[in-house]
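Final report, Chapter 2: Outcomes

The project's central promise was a pipeline that accepts a single protein chain and returns its three-dimensional structure in a standardized token representation, suitable for archiving and comparison. That pipeline is now operational. To close this chapter, we reproduce one record exactly as it appears in the project archive, with the input sequence first and the structure output second.
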Amino acid sequence: MKTPLLLLCLAGLPLAGCAVGPDYAAPTLQLPTAWSSDRHSRPKPPALSRWWRNLKDPLLDELIADAVGGNLDVAAAKARIREARATRQQAVGALFPTITGSGSATGNRTAASSTGGFDVSPATYGQYQAGFDASWELDLFGANRRAVEAATYGVDAADDDLRATLLTLVGDVASYYIDARGYQARAALARRTAASQRQTAALTERKLAAGSASAVDSEKANALAASTEATIPTYEASYQQQVHRLGVLLGRDPTALAASLAKTAPIPAPTLPLPKGIPADVLTLRPDVRKAERQLAQYTAKIGQAEAALYPDVSLSGSVSTTALKLGDLGKTSTIGWSIGPSVSVPIFNGGKLQAAIEIAQAQRDEYHVAWRSAVLSALEDVENAIVNLSQERRRIVSLADSAKRYGEAARLSRALYETGSNTFLDVLDAERSQFSAEDSLLASRANVAKYYVALAKALGGGWDGEIDVRKPEVVDVGTGPHLSQSR
């Protein structure tokens, strides 16, 4: 035992007390000074508040707001906050004295007896007793205060867990909505293209009847149209899956949004660029990183809680009781007794159990330190990947737009020349197939640009920054007072 510290704590004021174990210090990590895309330019502060509004889709804005209020993962995160707050209150309660009251009433009867030649008749009398007991753990070495410290960090971690859940939710709603609109647009393109290819097939059949085309050309034309039509069920199934997922994310049944999303709308197009700030911003903006740091602080405090068990535990206890033969005499003409005094519990031998508890706490602290570093590095990786994906997809979409335009013109010219007999049907077939493929890829790329924008906003820490009421429980109990149990 560390004698100087022990003597100092015993001599100090009980209310102030001492604390053992390490005091928490926020960890540091060497970070890049700029993102890879900003190394040759001056970075702008991140602008992440309601970033989804940059997609300019009012229905998406409405869905996100509804999801925040109805999502079940958010509801569970709210419950975890209430749990953490109650845990902290429980820990705070250990800092205060505990007082319990007691009372008793007994009926007594003495038996008949004969003493010294005198007969004593039986007698009946009552005895009443009331009192209270009080005890107070002085917490000289800070075990309870470390418990409060750990619980406070736990509340912070629960708050950040809710924010991380909201960040994921907002990003998921936006991504699934973009996918839904993407598949919707691709299915519509497939229908238009198949209809056009059916017209080409009808033209081929007329030319076959006139003797200016072969049966092979007619079969190939119809086969191409059928092949395009075959993509429609696939896109429709994917579209329905996104709609179902959105319904569940909003806390509703999977088909709840079928009607509201049935009307075709364009794929959301984000306003670019999105200011990214600097890598150090993720330490404060990413709720999962903040949560990991708070958990590290929480488990650092638990080391002190474990170390305090090695030191004496000093408590004050006292009691007051009163006894009377009549209930109305309690506190008046009754007998009154009291006791007060300290008690000390000193660990002498425990087979190394207390030291093992400290080592467990230290190992847990190390685990959460590694988890924090991992969270930071993962956050940096997420941002860099999103930057690269968005940048490259924007370059890709320029080429795809040019490709789709040129293939569209080639298909128009091929059909026109085929109608006049100046071109072979193979050229028409190849042009129409290439046109559909290019336009389909262009639509998919537009959806990817929007989703990579969402991924970048998420990676930077952009989530729901509005107020969230966590006080309302999911289940409201009624009739919780004393009653006959009816459990089954």
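Archive annotation: The first helix runs from residue 3 to 11.
This record, like all others produced under the grant, will remain available to the consortium after the project formally closes.
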